[in-house]
Amino acid sequence: MLKIVIAGGFGVGKTTAVGAVSEIPPLSTEEYLTEPSSTVDSLEGVEAKQTTTVAFDFGRITFHDAPVPVELLLFGAPGQDRFVNLWYDLARGAVGAAVLVDTRRLENSFTAVDFFEDIGLPFVVALNQFDGARRYHPQEVRTALELPDDVPVVTCDARARDHIAGVLLTLVGHAVKSAPTSPDHPTFPTALQDA
């Protein structure tokens, strides 16, 4: 079993991604947005949003066709900056994170990118292709977010199971490559390191 965090700004599609790919009914802590939250949660660019994650989402997916069957435990983080302290708990024991990005509101991505860079957790950036949104080449987004060359940037539709499964496989591959090679740090099963 490998623990994965799915993070990103407010309204980028984290709950949707967990729900799309989970083989079990996902646990969701979605609550309706309230009038008092309007002073801290800007709906600019996501005006139709009516709910938000207040703790985390949880799902599971198993890849049976891998050299060794791999079960991923998915933890979707809340997107508002005021919940960043919870991200430390969600990241504890994780092998990596997928940072979902809405290119219409790219500025909301910096908190998640900076967080995972600061704690040293391997991550990938997944550009959620919203209907009607302008499409950017991943290299353009890499430059805008000032990402190192070794951080994978991929495109996806958070509603599509195959897309999110692909993001997760990219993340696991990246995390394996980033894992310490010391025998004192057996982060991944040997068969996965050889995959």
The termini sit apart by 16 Å
Number of alpha- plus pi-helical segments: 6
Mean pLDDT: 84
The major pleated sheet works out as: 6 strands, mixed
| Low-confidence spans | 185-195
Number of strands: 8
Secondary structure category: alpha/beta
Widest beta sheet: strand line-up = 4-5-1-6-7-8
Strand percentage, roughly?
15-25%
Q: Summarize the amount of helix as a percent range.
A: 25-40%
Q: Can you characterise this structure?
A:
The chain is globular and about 35 Å long. It has 195 residues and is α/β, with parallel strands linked by helices. The longest helix is centred in the last third of the chain and has 18 residues. Helix content is 29%, strand content 22%. Helix 1 crosses helix 5. The C terminus is likely disordered. The chain has a six-stranded mixed sheet with strand order 4-5-1-6-7-8, with helices on both faces. A two-stranded antiparallel ribbon has the order 2-3.
Quick take:
It is built from six helices and eight strands, in the order βαββββαβαβαβαα. With 195 residues, the protein is of the alpha/beta class. Strand 4 (57-63) and strand 5 (70-76) form a beta hairpin.
List descriptors:
single chain; 195 residues; alpha/beta; six-stranded mixed beta sheet; two-stranded antiparallel ribbon; globular
